[in-house]
Specification:
By secondary structure, this protein is of the alpha/beta class. The protein has two domains: 86 residues, Winged helix-like DNA-binding domain superfamily/Winged helix DNA-binding domain (Arc Repressor Mutant, subunit A, Orthogonal Bundle), CATH 1.10.10; 173 residues, Glucose-6-phosphate isomerase like protein, domain 1 (Rossmann fold, 3-Layer(aba) Sandwich). The chain contains 14 helices and five strands. Strands 2-1-3-4-5 form a five-stranded parallel sheet, with helices on both faces. β1, α10 and β2 form a beta-alpha-beta unit. α2 packs across α4, α4 packs across α5 and α9 packs across α13. The chain starts with 7 loop residues before the first helix and ends with a helix.
């Protein structure tokens, strides 16, 4: 399978010093934006590098691919995984900034619109009630998913107790989640380029009877099999990086709804927290 093959850019760098001047032109084009291989034909790549299609065909064979199409499939797989290196594109020097900004804005708006339209209105109240009433509530996020989990945790911390942000420094997940059960809930954030451990954690929690909410991009991957609820967010970026606008907006919606739910139960946790802030003089 292509996913187990050495990365294209690694192959190029391994033989770069041995390339002819003509081959170096194509190598430089690919190294500048490897994702172009996923979207361009061999003829188009040849035109970008200013070389002949025959040279391009020989170049990919020299890299160890049977055909350009095999290299293209590998590049597509890597691009779908969310690698920023494969999402960047060759840019012309005279790209107008206002057009880039407008394109970026339109992309963010489209992501927000599509994500909100796809929300399960029937499941949302159930999710909110469980988050408000769960005995213990934990948030799990790795890598670039952790800031989203942190935002969720930080905003709910003022209105309810028994919250956990994981993984925590110095702790294992088992030490915190080992005592969780049906009365508890875990929110897992898993945007693409997920770590394999996320699926293992969610599988273990499901077997323990814990309610799991999974916030993901549109391709939920293996962890989706172990979630009670799934919220899919559009994360397609207009340039090199994925967009988190829709993810952040949905998270804001959820903790706002949870806050409203808790307020209706007349919980005095927020009042206690504010009094403690005053006693400790922690905030201006």
């Amino acid at each position: 399978m292509t996913s187990h093959m050495p990365a294209m850019e690694a192959r190029i760098r391994e033989i770069y010093d041995e390339l002819t001047d003509i081959e170096t032109r194509l190598a430089d084009v690919i190294l500048a934006a490897p994702g172009e291989v996923a979207t361009h034909t061999a003829a188009e790549l040849s035109a970008l590098a200013g070389i002949s299609p025959a040279t391009t065909t020989r170049f990919f064979r020299r890299l160890g691919y049977d055909t350009h199409e095999q290299a293209r499939r590998q590049a597509r797989d890597t691009q779908r995984s969310g690698s920023p290196l494969y999402l960047q594109k060759l840019q012309t020097q005279n790209t107008e900034m206002d057009k880039l900004i407008q394109s970026h804005l339109e992309n963010e708006v489209a992501n927000l619109s599509h994500t909100y339209k796809a929300l399960d209105i029937k499941a949302l109240p159930e999710i909110v009630k469980k988050m408000a009433s769960a005995r213990r509530l934990a948030f799990v996020g790795y890598r670039h998913s952790q800031p989203i989990a942190t935002s969720f945790y930080r905003n709910l911390l003022a209105i309810r107790s028994d919250l956990y942000l994981l993984p925590a420094p110095g702790d294992t997940l088992a030490e915190i989640l080992g005592g969780f059960g049906p009365q508890d809930m875990v929110v897992c954030v898993g945007l693409r380029r997920r770590v394999p451990q996320l699926a293992a954690v969610m599988e273990a929690l499901t077997k323990m009877g814990v309610s799991v909410l999974y916030i993901s991009d549109v391709i939920v991957g293996k962890p989706g099999k172990f979630a009670k609820w799934i919220i899919r967010c559009q994360t397609q970026g207009s340039m090199m990086f994925d967009s988190n606008a829709a993810v952040s907006a949905v998270v804001n919606l959820l903790y706002s709804l949870v806050g409203r739910e808790i307020a209706e139960t007349r919980s005095n946790h927020l009042e206690k927290v504010e009094r403690m802030h005053e006693v400790l003089r922690e905030l201006e």
